[in-house]
Structures are given as C-alpha cells and as structure tokens.
Write a structure and sequence with these properties.
alpha+beta, four-stranded antiparallel beta sheet, 37% strand
Length: 71
Amino acid sequence: EKGDLQLHGLQPPQITIDLQTSAGKRSLLVGRTEGDSQRVYAAVAGETAIFVLSEDDAKRIVKPLMGFLEK
C-alpha cells in the first residue's frame, strides 16, 4: 500500500540494505517497528509501496545487521 515514508520511519530509514539482483542493484529500506510488535515497516527504495516484515523475518534480517553497527 502507498504510504508516508516519514511516518513509518523510512525517511530516513533505520537501516538500508543494498542488494545485487539479476535485475540490478536494489535497496531495502527498513523503518520503525509496527506498534508494540517486533514487525517492522519496509519499502524498496524508489517505490511507493510500504509493507511490513513479519517478526521472524525482521529477526533474521535486522538483528544480525545490528552487530555490524559501531558502538
């Protein structure tokens, strides 16, 4: 669904994940959590659709990346 990037914590994003695909480079923007859950808002850079990553997907994607951040 088309949404407000800033409202969902996607502008600026909490995390940007750059991926190389057969169609070229794509960036996944990861925003804030959805309410009190561990699900997170996400969007593909340059697209208007905003979607929610499930708790399991968010744990697999976001938590390991946090280990790379400087403390």
